[in-house]
Amino acid sequence: MSLATTMNAADYFMIVQGGVNKKSDLSNILSNLNSGNAIRVNPLQNAINFSVASKNNGNMFVVSGAADRIGIGTDNPQSVFHVIGNSQIGSGSVDGVLVQSAEEITYTSADQTNIVTKSISPSRAITSLICNTGCNGLFSLGAGFNGQLKTIAQQSLDTGAAKTSTITVAGGMGFNTITFNAVGDSAVIQYASSSSKWIIIGGNGADYSTV
User: Fold this and answer.
1) What Å distances lie between residue 106 and 80, 115, 128, 139, CA to CA?
2) Domains (ranges, CATH) in the chain?
């Protein structure tokens, strides 16, 4: 019997039922599973990797059989459960926890020439801004999630040429602009559920203003 390397909807599985050879397609096998039965992948616990791809992510769900790890968005998980991107526990900010990751945004000379305003993700806990030599960075921050805590920091800036980063904030309480003038300047803000606005929590060296 040869080993099939491809399958299509018209193909069948060969199974043994009660000592009799039979054939069945996948939909029939799944439809005949009772609720008390279980489907196990790799029950012999071999060092086999298992992955599921989505339309835009080739590593949507990855099980590393050799490392005993699960990756979401990565084929090289560094812990038992490793997520690249945001994850949420619960249905919302009231009964759940939103777990965020960090991002870096670079403002280039081409961005400055074309007067580009780069968007800052409100769902990332930390955003680091990098402005290339000779650039005044232009950024924007939209509405957040209720309870969302956000830190924005200036990682690189051409301070010798008196350059700045300007962030236009949608729905700031008492401000709509944050300006950084030096490397290390930072702003800590939170999206308040009571007012649906960003409020100032703290930071270092940031100028908050209304323009």
Assistant:
1) 32, 14, 9, 10
2) 13-83 (no CATH), 97-209 (2.60.120)
Q: Is 136 exposed, middle or buried (0-12, 13-18, 19+ CB in 10 A)?
A: middle
Query: Pick the residue with more confidence: 38 or 196?
Result: 196
pLDDT at residue 138 tops 60: yes
Residue ranges in the chain assigned as alpha helix (H)? 26-31, 109-113
Q: How far apart are CA 127 and CA 64, in angstroms?
A: 30
pLDDT in tens, 75-86: 998 889 988 877
Element (H, E) at 74: none
The amino acid at 208: Y
Conformational region of residue 45, where left means phi above 0, alpha means psi within -120 to 50, and beta covers everything else: left
Length of the chain measured in residues = 211
Q: What is the pLDDT of residue 7?
A: 66
